[in-house]
Every structure is written in structure tokens, then in C-alpha cells.
Amino acid sequence: MARVRLEHVTKRYDDQGEIVTAVDDMNLDIDHGEFICFVGPSGCGKSTTMETIAGLTIPTEGEVHIGDREVTNLPPKDRGIAMVFQNIALFPHMDVYDNISFGLRLRDYPQDEIDRRVERAADIVQLEGMLDRMPDEMSGGQRQRVAIARAIVREPDVFLMDEPLANLDAKLKVHMRTELQRLHKELDTTIIYVTHDQEEAMTLSDRIAVLNSGSLQQIDPPLTCYNEPDNLFVAGFIGSPSMNFISGTVGESAIETPNFSLAFDPATVEGLGVGDEVTIGIRPEDIYPGEFRNEIRDPSSLISARVDILEPMGDEIFAYMLLAEGETSMDQKQTTNNQLLMSIEPDSEIQEEEDIEVAIDRRNVHIFDSATGDALVHKLEPVGSDTGVTGREAESDD
Amino acid sequence: MATTTKDTDDSDGPLARWTQRAIQNPERVYRALFYAAMAFFLVTTLFPFYWLAVLAVTPEGNLLAGSFLPTINLFGVSGTFPLPVPKGFNPAAFVTVFEQVPFHLYMLNSFALAVTTTVIVLFVASLAGYVFGRLRFPGRALLMLGILAISYFPPAAFVIPLFQAFAGNAPITVPFTDIPLFTPPRLLNTPGSMVLPFSALFMPLSIFILTTFYGQIPDGLEDAARVEGTTRLGALFRVIMPLSAPGVATASVLTFIAVYNEYFFSSIMATSPEAAKWSPIVGGILSYQTQYTTQYNLMAAASIVGVLPVVILVIVAQERIVSGLTSGALKE
Known about the structure:
The complex is a heterodimer. By secondary structure, chain A is an alpha+beta fold. In chain A, 24% of the residues lie in helices and 32% in strands. Chain A has two domains: 233 residues, P-loop containing nucleotide triphosphate hydrolases (Rossmann fold, 3-Layer(aba) Sandwich); 156 residues, CATH 2.40.50.140. Chain A is built from ten helices and 22 strands. Chain B folds into two domains: 56 residues, no CATH class; 239 residues, MetI-like fold, CATH 1.10.3720.10. In chain B, the strands form two sheets. Chain B has a two-stranded antiparallel sheet. Chain B has a two-stranded antiparallel ribbon with strand order 3-4. The chains are: A alpha+beta, B mainly alpha.
């Protein structure tokens, strides 16, 4: 039973006199057999966290537990782990058989046991008949499979995978992704998987751990992270294209933004008062062109917007809209506050430069505290009348 | 000057014309320079061997009589042949070499010393190369500089204190006092008295070469080896070292040749040039010289025999050495 626990793990580097905190007070509890993805942008500490679990990096503070042992200061070889590296890291001077059996040979397994296990591992990753090839004679996908075979042959308690699919082309990536899922079912071991690709994380994992600047933002099942993000960072990171954020101020019965107001009763959220700064988060698929307003169960009233750019993706179209006219300001915050991204049906008639009206599905609106970034509400309570939003025609219409 | 460089028509002198052609077509100059340099190196490196061979096959009685440059008479014109040629032919000298003196034992001594030193140097320099090439720690540059500084000391500076120490007669004392520290064992006339200083003297070069090579191996490979079940040391010898084969080959061949040819230390540490006292090849060659006679032909033959193992080694390893030397030079 390999449960993995991190307790207050902190890693600081001394980078030429400057102290850099790569991992900041990380607490994690990963169950046996779980598939966990660490996601986050580059430099968020996900690889360092994995290295502390692997033992390649010793944490500055905190403890690492694997199974019922404390392994904080054990060398990697004694931790019962196997790892697949981002750069694959096959030993170039050994053929596939030697690469896969390297760990077993070091542990003095009997030859027939080694042969049996290598054969089985090669079978699982479909590498039969390639055991005498050298790594430089193989394609990227084949090398990747050798690396995975090298990891599974040792039958470890925990698998660590550091962006194993990062260097593969898109088609192979999808293929390997399903193979990994099959592998997880077959092996029933704990897998910890690092990726910056949130799509990979969503499809593969039982739970996603979202990291940013060294600290854990949220660890929850993929759909929970998607539907109920704990804070602005998770909301923006999970989901592609990412959520629209519009900052506003809480009023008596609505959240006022520069371009529209959204009916909202501040009393429904504890600790929120009139005048507080909040950020409204709306996913592109929860915004609809005005003519579909009646099909939304709890629609807002119409908001005027001008279509700026259309991005046809085939199965849907992304419409980038501007909420107010003449706001091509260089001020980043101002521009993002003006923009709204909507995902629409591919057969839509909407054209670029067209003035349209859109409605928001209020049941999928998230409200965040602008100061702390923490989520306040994930679903707005229905308001009695259907005039939830009052469009500000005067400002936005030309 | 200005006028001559401006004129480019055919009325120029041959030098000016040649210069113009060279400027327009530099390939010719490069090729000419290449051949000139090659000829120079071939003459300076191969002529001594030729001269040794001439000496070796000349019978002993003819060595000092007459000139090695024969006078030839070609169609009535007589002159001196510009290359030395043997005066007689006596290949038996290559056998006599082993009959008069146990020269094979001297060769074995040199060979054993060279192999032992190379193994020690490679092992220790690998550890040092790993530390310098792959780890970051304060004072690394300073330590490296220290090693560099020591490698510039003339070996002669160490001879007398080392001889005293290896004689094992008196205890080593704290400098400037009579407080004894320990009495070293008597190492004179044993391989220890030679292998120890050789290892120390030839270590810095190998450390430099291996540091460069080990530093280039990607971290991922070492991490992979450690996760798979090696220690850091295991990763060094199972993964990093095999992948640095050109560098390791370079370091070992350079060390081997340097020790194999060494005479200065071993002539002092072996108190007389006897094979039983671990005297090296040069000691053997010099024992063809007695108080009254010098058998140049045998010395020449012994030199040729003695150099053969190194020639073979270099021919076998040359590709690796060249790639090792150049890549080291480019990266450092």
C-alpha cells in the first residue's frame, strides 16, 4: 500500500546569494492507487515537488512519507519508486533490454526473473521484438515506451512521471495518454504525474493538484477544479480557452462593472458588503448569443457587445468580443475588463465587427474576491425577476 | 608599398602575382601550408625513428668507422647521399638486446608502473571530475585553481623530500621542529615510490579532461540511474563514465604514455638501474652502456622495441584521443 504524504515540504535554493523558494509549505495526501496530476505554469514548483518525492532533491523543511515509512532523507533507490523523465533519459550506451533491466540487474535479480519481467513490461508497452535496438535507432514514441517499461519492470509502489509526453507530437500524445490510462488500470499503483498541459491532467487523473509559485492552490477531482475553482488562479488555469474575468463592485442588488451590471444579492454571501471589489468569472461556453436567451434556465439580461475576432475551431467558434467602444487602451487591466470570449455553435451567422447582444447563464457565474483571489460563490441564486442584468446601452452602443 | 599593391597588371613581379592569386583563391594557400606543416612534422617525428633503425641494424664494429652518409657515383658524377644508410645489416641486434640485459623485464616494469598509475589516476580523477564537473559548491573555482597551481610545480621540487621520506630512515617531523609525526615505510626500489608521485603529478591533467566530459552528461541520465537503483558513485561508474569514453580514453592514454616514458623520478627512486629494483625502460637502455663501451646499436634497438607498445596503443586509440582532445579543448 503506497500512500504518499508530504508534510510542510519547503524547498529553498540559494541562487547566487538570492534565496528562491521553489516549494512553499506543501501538504499533500495521496491515496494508494490514485492517479494524481500536478499542473501549473512553468516554474510553479511542480517538478521540484516531484523531485522531493523521488529523493533527487532533499527538502529544506518538512517530511516525505511513502507507504508507512518516512523517506525524507533516503536516497532515491531505497524509496520504492520509479520515474519517467521529461527528457526520457534512456542510457544511450545500452540497448533496450539493458535499459529496461538496468534496475533489476542492480538489485541482483535472478536472470530468468529478469527475462520474465522484461518480457512482460515490453508486452505491456508493445515493444516486442525491439529489445536489441539501441535508443538512437528508435522514434520518440518508442523511446518513451522504453522509459515507461523501464519504470514498470521494477513493480514500484509509486510511479513518478515528469511530463513524459511533453516531447511527443500531438497524435502520439493522445495515443500514449490512453495507453497510460490502460496501464494505470492494469498495474493498480499510485501514479504521480507532472504536466503543464491541463488537458492531459483533466483526462488522466483522479485528482488534480494545481500549483502556482510553489504552493498548492487546489487538489480536487478534475471536474471539481473545473466547476468549483477555489480561487482566481485555478479558475484561469483550468479550462481552455480560459475563463473570462471582469472586475466589478458590489452594489445594493447587483455587481456593477463598467459595462454592465449583474443582479446579485450581497446578503447571500457571508462577509460581503456593498462597495467590495469582486471579480466575475464566466466560462466562454456559459455565454450565449441573445436569441438563445430563452433556452437558458437562469439567464441574465442582455449585454451589448461588438464582435472583434472570430476563431473557427470546427466544432465551435470562439468569438472575442469588446464590451465598450473605443477602448483599445494599452492598459492591460482595462482591456481585459472590456473583453469577453464566447464559445458559439459552428453554424452561427455572427460576423466580425457586428454589434450583438449576449446573455450569461447565471447558474455558472463565479464570483471571486478581487483582493485575495478566493472564490466566494460558484452559482448565483436566481433573482425574482428576469432583469438580472441591466445593459448599459448608452455606454457600449455606438 | 602603396604603388606596388595597387598595380595588378601582368607586368608585376612573380611575388606580386603569386600574392594576388593567393588572395583570390585562399584555398591554395591553405593547402600549401598544410603540406608544408605536414612535411615538417613527418620529418621531425619520423627521422629519429629512421635514424634509430639505421643505428640498430649497423653491426657494432662498423658504428664508429666511416660516415653514415655514403658517397655515390652516378654516371660519373659523385656526391654524398643526403640520407644516412646502415653500414652493414645485423638484425640480430634485436635479439641480442634481450640476451645481454633482461630488457623485457625493464619493459614489464614500465608497463606495470604505467598501468597501475593509470588505474589510480583514472579512479581518483573520476571522483574529482564528478565533483568539479557536476556539483556546485562554494570554493569550487578556488580548489580547481589550486590543483592547476600544483600541476605547474616542477617535479624536481619534490624529489629530495620524497626521496628522504621513501628512504624510511627517519621520521617525518613537524616543519621547523623535531617533533616526529610518523616514520614512513621504506619504499625505495619498490613500485610504491614511483606510482605515488606519478599519480600525483599526472592527476591534474586527467582531472581537467574528465571534469569537462563529466560536466556535459545531462543531469537526467544521472537522476535516472539513481532512481533505478544506483548511488551517486554507481551512476558515475555505470553511466557517466561509459558515456564519457572519449575523455576517459584520452586521459588514460596520456597518463599511460607519460608514465611509460618517465625516467627522472624512477632513476632516483630505483637506486640502481636493475630490473629487480623496478628500474624502467630508460634504465634498461642505459645499461647497454658500460664504463668502457657504449653499444649504440643495442641502445637503438632497445629504444625501438620499447616504443612499440605505445605506438600500438596510440594507433588503436587514436580516433578516441583526437575526438577527446578536441572536444575538451572546445568546451573548456
